[in-house]
Amino acid sequence: MKFQKMPSGRIKGFTLIEVMIVVAIIGILAAVAMPAYTDYVKRGKIQEATSTLADFRIKMEQYFQDNRTYATATIAATGATLNTSGTKYFTYAFTVAPAAAVYQITATGVAAQGMSGYSYTIDQSNAKTSNADGTVGADCWLTKHGGSC
């Protein structure tokens, strides 16, 4: 590589110190941006659970209107009352109390998708609870880091 000399006799280019300052600035920006980006991605994944649970609740109320019981409702990957096909970040479980007028649906985060420690529930009275990476929301679904609903 051939360097060009300036009219004043100096060689054009960057000094090592200038390059190191740029690398340090990029490192600081990355250290700040990566956690914010990770939280942003998790918030997007949480939307799968909250929207699916809300949809399931509506379907369960329609099912109860038709059958006067929750006892025979099911969750499956295909062809069931509550269909979980297309969900990627959470698994869903459905439980019915012996009275058959009480149910609870739980969404549990899939560890392989980076969502371990996240779980969300809803029941027949629209009571919502959540556990978002150790932070418990007793009366809401936590959707942001730090425990805000």
Describe the structure in brief.
With 149 residues, the chain is an alpha+beta fold.
How would you describe the overall organization of this protein?
The chain has 149 residues and is an alpha+beta fold. The chain has one domain (16-137). Helices cover 35% and strands 21% of the residues. It contains 1 helix and 7 strands, in the order αβββββββ. The strands form 2 sheets. It has a 5-stranded antiparallel sheet, with helices on one face. It has a two-stranded parallel sheet with strand order 1-2. The protein starts with 15 loop residues before the first helix and ends in a 12-residue tail after the last strand. The mean pLDDT is 85.
Q: What key attributes describe this structure?
A:
alpha+beta; 149 residues; 35% helix; two-stranded parallel sheet; 5-stranded antiparallel sheet; single chain; 21% strand; 1 helix; rod-shaped
